[in-house]
Design a protein that fits this description.
Shape: elongated
Number of helices: 3
Strand content: under 5%
Structural class: mainly alpha
């Protein structure tokens, strides 16, 4: 019972994170790796602006959380 509840909670959270990641991908027209590369190469307009930096850290955090939750989900399987 506990495993099922945990899996359901993790799958729900992964779904929410997926929506948030897709929102960033749609906003910038690229995935996180491309966004990161564009920032380093100077392709992004004002890469050190507050909005860009905030989006970078939030997006990176979502990618990290998704990986950790997927790892936990595999462990529970």
């Amino acid at each position: 019972m506990f495993d099922t509840t945990m899996k359901d909670a993790i799958e729900h959270r992964l779904s929410v994170i997926g929506v948030q990641i897709r929102a960033y991908e749609n906003q910038y027209g690229m995935n996180f790796e491309q966004f990161q590369s564009s920032g380093r190469s100077g392709e992004l307009q004002a890469p050190t602006s507050y909005r860009i930096e905030r989006d970078y850290f939030e997006w990176d955090s979502l990618i990290t959380r998704r990986k950790k939750l997927n790892d936990i989900l595999q462990w529970l399987a």
